[in-house]
């Protein structure tokens, strides 16, 4: 290799070759047909978050992510839920409601979503009642 075309790392590589062979080999042809198993990654608090968003929704305002110490209402709910669960003072069946009451005592107002936003399922697709009120009334009137 001419001196002008040598990369700057070439002499170091020649002086200190790698201990393990670094050649790349393609995967075996029979491995091409196998699919990599994708395991679902679920944490215990994911069930709490899912129930929180199902019951309370996202809330009326957008999150302020520019603040460094910002915690969403859902995150605060999960943390409080875990603290109450670790103490063991509250029955598991009532823990969700007791967490909401405890947060309300701390000043976090949670409004249940059912009163604000009714949904009708048509062929398995949820339709927001508040967003499509005129369309739904038109469909009901025509049928």
UniProtKB/TrEMBL annotation:
A GO CC annotation given for this chain: ribosome
Cited CDD domains: At1g26750 (cd23701)
Domain (Small ribosomal subunit protein mS23 conserved): residue spans on this chain: 1-107
One Pfam family of this chain: MRP-S23
Keyword Mitochondrion on entry: yes
PANTHER family (alphabetical): MITOCHONDRIAL RIBOSOMAL PROTEIN S23, SMALL RIBOSOMAL SUBUNIT PROTEIN MS23
Entry protein name: Small ribosomal subunit protein mS23
Principal location class: mitochondrion
Organism: Phrynocephalus forsythii
Record's keyword annotation contains Ribonucleoprotein: yes
Cellular compartments annotated: Mitochondrion
GO terms classed as biological process: translation
One MF annotation (Gene Ontology) recorded for this entry: structural constituent of ribosome
Family indicated by similarity: Belongs to the mitochondrion-specific ribosomal protein mS23 family.
Record key words, sorted: Mitochondrion, Ribonucleoprotein, Ribosomal protein
């Amino acid at each position: 290799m001419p001196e002008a075309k040598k990369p700057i790392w070439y002499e170091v590589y020649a002086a200190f070759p790698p201990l393990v062979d670094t050649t790349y080999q393609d995967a075996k042809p029979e491995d091409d047909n196998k699919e990599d198993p994708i395991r679902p990654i679920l944490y215990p608090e994911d069930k709490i978050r899912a129930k929180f968003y199902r019951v309370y929704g996202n809330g009326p305002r957008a999150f302020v992510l520019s603040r460094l110490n910002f915690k969403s209402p859902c995150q605060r709910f999960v943390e409080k839920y875990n603290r109450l669960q670790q103490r063991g003072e509250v029955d598991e069946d009532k823990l969700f409601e007791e967490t909401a009451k405890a947060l309300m005592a701390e000043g976090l107002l949670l409004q249940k979503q059912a009163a604000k936003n009714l949904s009708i399922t048509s062929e398995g697709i949820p339709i927001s009642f508040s967003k499509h009120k005129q369309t739904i009334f038109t469909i009901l009137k025509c049928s």
